Task: inverse folding
């Protein structure tokens, strides 16, 4: 299993970024996928999830209405469109394959998002 995030960078408050997570080594279309983030000195937190078909999503309250999770099961890629970014969104963003019972948890290497005020 390999998950490779990309798309992070430095952006001003109010700006937008789109993160991607390229998945390989498993049948992507059969797994729910998730985005997490970890700010410096803080615990990793859930950001958003999407079911395997891409029709059901969930978000942490702080990003609702600003972030959109999506996926392309033909390209084996997960996305996170982030708009109206705030300095509090500064973190390393990770994608994760939603683990089934007893499965190993797989994370990508993360991509840094920095929002300047």
Result:
């Amino acid at each position: 299993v390999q998950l490779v995030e990309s798309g992070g960078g430095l952006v001003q408050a109010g700006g937008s970024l789109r993160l991607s997570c390229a998945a390989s080594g498993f049948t992507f279309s059969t797994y729910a996928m998730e985005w997490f983030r970890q700010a410096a000195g803080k615990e990793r937190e859930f950001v958003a999830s999407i079911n395997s078909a891409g029709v059901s999503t969930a978000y942490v309250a702080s990003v609702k209405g600003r972030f959109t999770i999506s996926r392309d099961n033909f390209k084996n890629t997960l996305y996170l469109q982030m708009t109206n970014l705030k300095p509090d969104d500064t973190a390393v963003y990770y994608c994760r394959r939603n683990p089934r019972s007893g499965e190993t948890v797989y994370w990508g290497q993360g991509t840094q998002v920095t929002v300047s005020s």
Q: What stands out?
A: The radius of gyration is 13 Å. The CA atoms of residues 2 and 110 lie 12 Å apart. The beta strands are 2-6, 9-12, 17-24, 33-38, 45-50, 57-59, 67-72, 77-82, 91-97, 111-116.
